Amino acid sequence: MTASDQYASVRYLVDDVQAAVDFYTTHLGFTVNMSAAPAFADVVRGPLRVLLSGPTSSGARATPEDARSAGRNRIHLVVDDLDAEIARLRDAGLPFRSDLVSGPGGRQVLLADPAGNLVELFQPARRA
């Protein structure tokens, strides 16, 4: 098994690779695994690897024109204190895309990266 097989990878098409790297590393605790900006970079957080593909990357060039906009999919990041994360990210001026939503499994909120890709912050419900 190679090191990259130890990650679950998601590719996000982004308009500005460096802006996306800054967003994920500054605000969400990712680290840069590899960068070939302005075309491509990948960032990791635990077992999650996000491939940030700019307009000139092979990943973006292989994408059909009708599928180039940000979709309804999103990465899901578990946090210990959702209220504290919301306050920290709001103070940083990040764009939230939803209100706080609560359900039987926990609470969540959505924010957007610089290209409009969604990131879900989720705090699981406490189990008795």
UniProtKB/TrEMBL annotation:
<dbReference type="InterPro" id="IPR037523">
    <property type="entry name" value="VOC_core"/>
</dbReference>
<dbReference type="GO" id="GO:0004493">
    <property type="term" value="F:methylmalonyl-CoA epimerase activity"/>
</dbReference>
<dbReference type="InterPro" id="IPR029068">
    <property type="entry name" value="Glyas_Bleomycin-R_OHBP_Dase"/>
</dbReference>
<dbReference type="Pfam" id="PF00903">
    <property type="entry name" value="Glyoxalase"/>
</dbReference>
<keyword id="KW-0479">Metal-binding</keyword>
<feature type="domain" description="VOC">
    <location>
        <begin position="6"/>
        <end position="124"/>
    </location>
</feature>
<dbReference type="GO" id="GO:0016829">
    <property type="term" value="F:lyase activity"/>
</dbReference>
<dbReference type="GO" id="GO:0046872">
    <property type="term" value="F:metal ion binding"/>
</dbReference>
<protein>
    <submittedName>
        <fullName>Putative enzyme related to lactoylglutathione lyase</fullName>
    </submittedName>
</protein>
<dbReference type="InterPro" id="IPR004360">
    <property type="entry name" value="Glyas_Fos-R_dOase_dom"/>
</dbReference>
<dbReference type="InterPro" id="IPR051785">
    <property type="entry name" value="MMCE/EMCE_epimerase"/>
</dbReference>
<dbReference type="GO" id="GO:0046491">
    <property type="term" value="P:L-methylmalonyl-CoA metabolic process"/>
</dbReference>
<keyword id="KW-0456">Lyase</keyword>
